[in-house]
Amino acid sequence: MPGPSRIGVRYDTISDTNLSLATCDMPPNAPNRCRPLTVLEVHHVAVNVSDLDASSAFYRAAFGFATRRRTQFREIVGRGDVELHLFQAPEGIRFDGPRNWRHLGVQHLAFTVSDDELERALEVLAAQGAGADGPIQDGAGTALYTRDPDGNVIELRARR
After folding, report:
1. DSSP string of 88-127?
2. Omega before 98 cis (within 30°)?
């Protein structure tokens, strides 16, 4: 049986009855453990990459991100409130299969851009050697999709 995790949870003891919000009453005086946490914003997204330098260069050139911090195996890039943590994968094993919504893990990163920037995106991405699908009109507005050097899908969505 597995032992305690680094965060003190014994996964072999978790069950629907001792971890489910459904077992909690939700009146105003509900115990703290029954109230959902309030998430204020996404702090950052972390992505494992096969070549830290190439990925950093792509995100800086394509999206205007600046390097905020760098260590031997991690670089934090960002712009404004957007922050992306790039981690050098120790094995550098690439995922060469097709990616789609049926696979586990991060499906895609989505960045909001202005309408003007979405129009410019095809040219900017082409200059980085990245193709793109779109722009595509859907129920939520206009978007296009591209991939970073490791094949991670990036959505650029026009602000509504």
Report:
1. E-SS-----S---TTSSS---EEEEE-HHHHHHHHHHHHH
2. no
Tell me the pTM.
0.70
Q: What are phi and psi of 75, to 5 degrees?
A: -130, 130
- DSSP of the chain: ---B-TTS-BGGG--HHHH-GGGS--STT--GGGSPP-------EEEEES-HHHHHHHHHHHH--EEEEE-SSEEEEEETTEEEEEEE-SS-----S---TTSSS---EEEEE-HHHHHHHHHHHHHTT--EEEEEEETTEEEEEEE-TT--EEEEEE--
Q: What is the pLDDT of residues 86-101, one digit of tens each?
A: 999 887 566 555 555 5
Q: What is the largest CA-CA distance in the chain?
A: 57
Higher local confidence (pLDDT), 35 or 159 = 159
Please give the distance of CA 64 from its chain centroid, rounded to a whole number: 17
Whether domain 45-90+107-158 has CATH 3.10.180.10: yes
